[in-house]
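One such shown below:

_____
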Amino acid sequence: MAFLLLFPLGYVLHVAPRFPGSLVGGVIGVVAAVLMLLTLPYVVVKHVKAAERWTGRFVSKPTLLALHVYAGVLAPILGLVHAAHKFGSPVGLTLTGLVLLTVLSGFVGRYLLAQTARALRGRRSELASLQAAYLHLPAPPAPTAAAVALSRWKRLFFVAGEPPAPPPDGAEALAAALADTEFAIRAEGATNRLLSRWRWLHAVLGALVYLVLLLHIAAAIYFGLRWL
């Protein structure tokens, strides 16, 4: 992620206008395009049940996800190398920006969303343990009939009664922990819902990347592949 975000700044130090159209630059660009195509099987398997059942006999879904992640990171790196800091083409510049945004949104969805979901499950488990501990606290002793009658008599003659019995040991600490945990669950749940929307953004950006990539390839073929 750091490399992808910092690499485009290299145009300040180095520009190679003829490299993208050279043999080496062209091969790197083709490899980057092939790697981008390798990210599609996971998308198909995730959204098409028939494809998931068929591919499940040969390769697992987590394996396809790993291929999606690694190919989706390596392809933009090779794409930036292929561009060689030449930002003269509007299509190439648009493609570079979309690729960086797609990788960034994928990073959020793959890692940050997983971390918040894991933290939320841990908080809920902690809340269940605290609730069980609170329910098992010893109940305060019930007042006797004489104590109740005396308390009523004192209230009748405006005499201060006995102070309330102190809560059981640890009750106040458990109550505070319950309140803090419930607040954390609400906050982390809101964060998780917010980050989950990045999946839709990632999907839209990915679709735009493939569309602009087709335009980029078509323009390269139309104007001629110099290395051929």
Notes: Residues 32 and 79 are 6 Å apart (CA to CA). The chain is about 75% helix and 0% strand. The first helix runs from residue 2 to 6.
